Amino acid sequence: MSQQDAEVQRAELREPVVVNPSFADSCDAAVIWLHGFGDAPENWARSLKPMREAWKDWPPAQRWKWLHLHAPLVPQPCYDDVLIPGWDRLRTTGCLHVEDLASEDPKSAFMLASVEAVKHEVDKLVRDGVSFSRIVLGGFGQGAAVALASVLSLDRPVAGCVVLSGWLAPHARTLLDREKPPDTPVLICHGAEDEVVGFDCAHAAADALEAAGIKVHFQRYDGLAHGAGPEGLDLLSGFLRSWLASGAEAPAVAWEEEENSASESDGEDDYELNSDAHGEVKYICKQTLSKLSDDIRSGRNLSLDSMEALSAIDTLPDDTILVPLSEESLEDVSELLHSDAGAASQRFLELAQAALCAEDTELTALEWRNSCLLNQDEHEKYLDESPENAEEEKVPHEKLPAESTPTTAAEADEEHDEGKSSEHLAKKRKSDQEISENTEEASLSYANPAESSTMGADDEREDEKK
Description:
By secondary structure, the protein is an alpha/beta fold.
């Protein structure tokens, strides 16, 4: 096998998020979506959920399949070759500009492998009876760049391509030099204030595509940073109607409304989207998380003890940096630990790397404590103002006179438990030396490798920066 042949081997994508059509046996169109750098397919599945919910009873969309692909773990030069979800290698943590793209390798093995993987998904849809003209490819950031490169590498045009906050990769630019690239219409949306992917990247992409004879709709959003925004998502929905439903009128989509927890459909392969889980996070000491990640990469497996030790942040110094992790995802890792410690360790590593790279979500321990106090104050205010409390007109328990005693055995037990809880909190106060010992324990408390089951396949996931 030649070196060139080795470069175009298909990337092994991880488990996608699939939302099947209402009539699973009669799919006649599909949307393939690629998330951004460091992100995960669940997040864009949630972002586009309002459209699916609004259109669930609209006949044309009832036969559409949504396929949110899951990027492989790729060693990233901009993060000292740490494995981070991505479609290609990223060489800068600063804002990407056209001049940065000029120095990138158009034959990047990772880019070529990702393009082959996307083309493979298109081929599978075609084998299942979905025509090229009924398939839309799209993505955000780095995912948009690979989606565009994939469309240009196909032998036939597809229904359309969506490029949100993306760019024309060097590999894609070489594909434009072919005698006649596929005539796939392209929608490009980009924020003028994008601090991650410069607006000049979108402008250059639109110019190059139009020069090659490709129909482009280029939309600039003044004041928008790295993101899509309701206007961009609304434009996306309009183009999907145009490409897949001949522009037929569809129910309006309320992008700014919160997602509800209704299931997508009754198909057994559908991904259950839970908006509540999306917002629940647990803050972890960044230094401890980094050390734990390093140890996993060195071959050690995660254990329940090490995960529990991560949560001991109440007494950390005020200037300690904390990062958020999805509480539901951590629970999934804990459950997976019981059956496959190797797979659980890799899943945890994915979550950790995404959190460690997202500097804009960091908090100091002091900020976290202040936030907790604020939430507690708001909760108590809500309880004080609730109609139930107003009707009962009871004196709050903490304001009872010292000589007051519970009137029932149940209340006596409750008061005893509260006393024990206060005593427990007092015991949790530790010196800085004890905190350091806990941090070391978190990084060293691993399961015996001999007790771990064989490493399984990654089950999913990862935020996007590009």
